[in-house]
Amino acid sequence: MKRISLLGASGSIGTQTLDIIRLHPEQFQLTAFSVGRNIEFAAKVIAEFGPDLVSVQRREDLDRLRPFLAHTKAVYGENGLLEVALHPDSSLLVNAVVGSVGLVPTLGAIEAGKTIAIANKETLVTAGHLVTEAARRHGVDLLPVDSEHSAIFQALNGEDEKRISRLILTASGGSFRDQTRADLESVTLEDALKHPNWSMGSKITIDSATMMNKGLEVIEAHWLFGLPYNQIDVVLHKESIIHSMVEFVDRSVMAQLGTPDMRVPIQYALTYPDRLPLPDAKQLQLWEIGTLHFQQMDLERFRCLRFAYEAGRMGGSLPTVMNAANEAAVEAFLQRKISFLQIEELIEQAMYHHTVCPNPGLEEIREIDAAARRYVMGQI
Ligand SMILES: NC(=O)C1=CN([C@@H]2O[C@H](COP(=O)(O)OP(=O)(O)OC[C@H]3O[C@@H](n4cnc5c(N)ncnc54)[C@H](OP(=O)(O)O)[C@@H]3O)[C@@H](O)[C@H]2O)C=CC1
Ligand SMILES: CC(=O)[C@@H](O)[C@H](O)COP(=O)(O)O
Ligand SMILES: [Mn+2]
């Protein structure tokens, strides 16, 4: 029996993780979980799974949750996320929270020797050097949940990194893949939230539309698989059937395919190195799809992808700034305070304005993250 702590249970990845736990009650048990503001959902999870611990984002929400607690202890805020991650009975942390708020609980769980199933890419982007170094020191596995990284992990199948020549991430192109830059001047929030292939939380859906999602994923791949940026490529593949590829030194390319369904990589991270059936996942029938399309990425059309390569290559605190500026700008777009194209303008300004700190520690990361958010808010 694997006992699981789950951060971000009420989100898109969180609810699908609960589906997997529900599907295999003999394999998995939910020990502790967090939500943000969705208290009704937390009450349902407590009634169904009877976990030991729940964390909510805000202290004032504890009163709303109290009538549903029974034997479940309730905590709140960033310390609450850490307490969930550190629950002594859990051996696995599924980090499905959105944003760099996931960093401290991830580092805490690694230091406590727990396996990490990581969906929360912002944590790896903002402080990949700290997370991977802590995982190495404590002998902890970082198991990818993100579909592209799970695809690479599966295609690698334990091969030594010396035999890899290139990682090839696929990008759907997001909501505006067929629009020109001129078209982007007048797109709306509603348009941006319509992802062609995946149903996901609002922040990542906007990231897909700006192509920042792929930028974050390039940096995530660098940290998870230890390859330099000149060995990480992106190809536009509008069907999202090939989830990513690995090219080996002999030019052989391994790809992982499947119909778009996040429960597949989530379940693989939970069962690794084993596999379990997922009977109601739609079988891939290539004849139904007929044709798969591929296109070279245009880094002027998708400027956020260029920013991410620049931030990743420069390293130090620049990825922290890019990530925090993106989080703040996307939040402002979701609140209709800025236009779609202002997201990338604000990120570029924040990166330009920052003096890079070469090897930031946790406290510096937190300060630089907060400063980048303040900078973006000050420009709006
Ligand atoms: N959705 C997907 O298919 C994929 C997602 N990812 C990554 O997984 C992560 C989660 O994405 P997704 O599930 O789509 O996001 P959602 O927005 O659907 O869910 C986010 C979760 O985090 C909680 N949350 C948000 N802010 C805070 C906070 N400050 N403190 C505590 N909890 C908070 C939310 O709580 P509440 O709703 O209760 O307020 C919710 O449970 C992201 O990093 C994303 O990039 C990666 C690959 C695919
Ligand atoms: C499902 C998943 O992993 C998302 O990150 C997805 O990849 C988004 O698609 P694009 O960023 O390629 O549009
Ligand atoms: Mn992805």
CATH class of the largest domain reads Alpha Beta
At CATH level 3, the topology of the largest domain is Rossmann fold
CATH architectural category of the largest domain: 3-Layer(aba) Sandwich
Domains, number: 3
Annotated CATH homologous superfamily of the largest domain: NAD(P)-binding Rossmann-like Domain
Tell me about the largest β-sheet.
7 strands, parallel
Question: What's the tally of helices?
Answer: 17
Layout: helices, strands, pairs:
Layout: E1 2-7, H1 12-23, E2 28-34, H2 39-49, E3 53-56, H3 61-65, E4 73-76, H4 77-85, E5 92-95, H5 103-111, E6 115-118, H6 121-138, E7 142-144, H7 147-156, E8 164-171, H8 181-184, H9 189-192, H10 202-210, H11 212-225, E9 232-236, E10 242-248, E11 253-257, H12 263-271, H13 286-289, E12 295-296, H14 303-314, H15 318-334, H16 340-353, H17 362-379
Parallel strand pairs: 1-2, 1-5, 2-3, 3-4, 5-6, 6-7, 8-9
Antiparallel strand pairs: 8-10, 9-12, 10-11
Helix pairs in contact: 4-5, 5-6, 6-11, 6-15, 10-15, 11-14, 14-16, 15-16, 15-17, 16-17
The structure holds NADPH dihydro-nicotinamide-adenine-dinucleotide phosphate (NDP), 1-deoxy-D-xylulose-5-phosphate and manganese (II) ion.
